[in-house]
Amino acid sequence: MTSLSVPLEAYLTVAASLFCIGVWGLINSRNAVRVLMSIELMLNGVNINLMAFSTYLDGAEIRGQVYAIFVITVAAAEAAVGLAILLSLYRNRDTVDMERFNLLRW
Amino acid sequence: MPPLAELTQLIVFALLAAAVLVGAIGVVILPNIVYSAFLLGGVFLAVAGLYLLLNASFIAAAQVLIYVGAVNVLILFAIMLVNKKEAMAASPGVGVRRLLSSGVCAGLLWLLLRVTFTTAWATPGPSQVGEGAVIRLGEHFFSDYLLPFELASVLLLMAMIGAIVLARRDVLSTDIATGEAVDQGLIEKSRTPLLMENTPQ
Questions:
Q1: pLDDT (tens digit, 9 = 90+) per residue, B31-89?
Q2: What is the pLDDT of residue B201?
Q3: Residue A23: which H helix or E strand, with range?
Q4: Would you call A79 and B74 a contact, using CB atoms and an 8 Å cutoff?
Q5: Number of CB pairs < 8 Å for A and B?
Q6: What pTM value is reported for the model?
Q7: Quick check: B137 and A63 CB within 8 A?
Q8: Residue A1 has what pLDDT?
Q9: Which long-range contacts (CB under 8 A, 24 or more apart) does B41-49 make?
Q10: pLDDT tens column, A23-60
Q11: Residues A4, A66, B50, B159: what is their CA dihedral angle, to the nearest 10 degrees?
């Protein structure tokens, strides 16, 4: 039985900060690859939350860890498809600048 | 395994949290995207360390294998494939946009922290399973979470096929096995740029 000396709020603070950094990067990045990296940061923030709740509030039935596995799976699929779309866009538009991916804009 | 001393846990947590936050800020603001990608790998490793601190050794291993081993390498490959030095044209109102988005993010952070610190969490919860976590995870996957587990495999298959179809360059002009010319119509179609009218040359 491992004692938990770090308070739960510390983990939640780190997760919230990581998520907000990810949101900021998602909004402000010009490079499309960096946008995908920001999305990965946000997913990791969510995962830290899930794992912290799983350990602190649901230590016997670790359902949060199950959800974390699903989030990791979906993140891997998202990264693969997202980067394939990015490659395809780069081949067609010859740029990775988010400001110039405006084909569907009025 | 004896539990880590409390002070050690606190110090390790502080180091890992600092690594996560500094690395994440670096990922977002560093001008060179290759540095960003390597820092992202560091952030993933530090998050895996946090999972170890939370008694979740299986998820930590999965994090290292999937995020550092697969996703980060994939991102690096994408950077190498699209790595063109391009001077991004300055768009109007970038400063205002950054200011506004920083305000929004700070507000979101404030909201999340307020929720975190005003809620009375029911800690300590039930006793930890500790090293039996992997067994418990397997039980969950093959009993009450069986349907999502199977759906995840279908999702991965769909993502794999979709990524191959989207990223394939073009059709070979001759069949590798027979050496004969393959259907030319397919090649012409695959070489036509789709969005020509907006592409600056």
A1: 899 999 999 999 999 999 999 999 889 999 999 999 999 999 999 998 988 877 777 77
A2: 46
A3: helix A8-28
A4: yes
A5: 263
A6: 0.84
A7: no
A8: 41
A9: B41/B68, B41/B72, B43/A41, B43/A44, B43/B19, B44/A44, B44/B68, B44/B71, B44/B72, B46/B16, B46/B19, B46/B20, B47/A44, B47/A47, B47/A48, B47/B20, B49/B12, B49/B16, B49/B19
A10: 999 999 888 999 999 999 999 999 999 999 998 988 88
A11: -170
Instruction: Please spell the DSSP secondary structure of A34-76, one letter per residue.
Output: HHHHHHHHHHHHHHHHHHHHHHHH-SSS-HHHHHHHHHHHHHH
- Cα distance between residue B100 and residue B33, in whole Å: 24
Cβ separation of B112 and A16 shorter than 8 Å?
Answer: yes
Structure tokens at B70: 């697969």
Of B20, B54, B126, the CB nearest to A18: B20
Q: Residue A33: which of B25, B82, B148 has the nearest Cβ?
A: B82
Which of A8, A19, A29, A62 is the best mutation test for B, with the most CBs of B within 10 A? Answer: A62
Q: Do B67 and A94 touch (CB under 8 A)?
A: no
Token pair of A54 as six digits? 């799983």
**ipTM over the 0.90 cut-off:** yes
Between chains, do B9 and A5 touch, taking CB under 8 Å as contact?
yes
What digits encode the pLDDT tens for the residues B114-126?
Answer: 999 999 888 777 7
Instruction: Give residue B107's pLDDT band: very low, low, confident or very high (50, 70, 90).
Output: very high
Contact check, Cβ <8 Å, B140/A73: no
Residue B150 has pLDDT above 60, yes or no: yes
Where do we find the tokens 């930590």?
Answer: B60
Q: How far is A106 from chain B (nearest CA, A)?
A: 14
| Closest CA of chain A from B66, distance in Å | 7
